[in-house]
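F.,

This is the one I mentioned.
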């Protein structure tokens, strides 16, 4: 009886840990104003201290290669997500809306899915949602270069100079995100 009680406690503990992880870090909304803190970055606050966004090349939904540095000169929101993550699914419509509104202002949203099933689940999901920005499936390179990723969704806003301005853990909304994107889109490139 004592062993089954201990097993029950361990099971409940593991279950609660899994629920917390699967909640995808959605309650970190107060961190939206924080500057990116990638490895090697000094104290935040000055543009000179901003790290270059790590480059990567992945196959996109349309079968072509997407290389991040090919889009230098644009404001990029790099979103690391998964089809099974409820907060990830919830923020996609806002991303699509901002992408449509600001595509002519040099703004590009980029989605990198972390689903283990890969294109098998990502392709139908992207088509069902009608996602209007480039989608890729990570082969481990992006989560390694931008990590460690503690939870998803995780987004990075990259300025026109190819530097990571903001790291946004957890779900973001249009109201939270658009002012940051507009400010960077209107900023002159030095």
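My design for it:
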């Amino acid at each position: 009886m004592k062993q089954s009680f201990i097993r029950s406690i361990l099971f409940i503990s593991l279950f609660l840990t899994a629920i917390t992880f699967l909640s995808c870090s959605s309650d970190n909304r107060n961190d939206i104003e924080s500057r990116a803190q990638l490895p090697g970055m000094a104290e935040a606050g000055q543009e000179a201290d901003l790290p270059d966004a790590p480059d990567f090349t992945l196959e996109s939904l349309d079968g072509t290669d997407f290389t991040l540095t090919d889009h230098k000169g644009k404001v990029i929101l790099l979103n690391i997500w998964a089809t099974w993550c409820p907060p990830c699914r919830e923020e996609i419509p806002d991303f699509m809306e901002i992408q449509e509104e600001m595509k002519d202002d040099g703004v590009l949203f980029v989605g990198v899915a972390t689903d283990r099933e890969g294109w098998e689940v990502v392709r139908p999901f992207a088509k069902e949602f009608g996602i209007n920005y480039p989608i890729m499936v990570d082969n481990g390179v992006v989560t390694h270069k931008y990590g460690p990723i503690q939870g998803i969704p995780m987004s990075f806003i990259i300025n026109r100079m190819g530097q990571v301005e903001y790291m946004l853990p957890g779900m973001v909304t249009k109201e939270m995100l658009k002012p940051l994107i507009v400010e960077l889109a209107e900023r002159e490139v030095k």
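The longest strand covers residues 75-81.

Talk soon.
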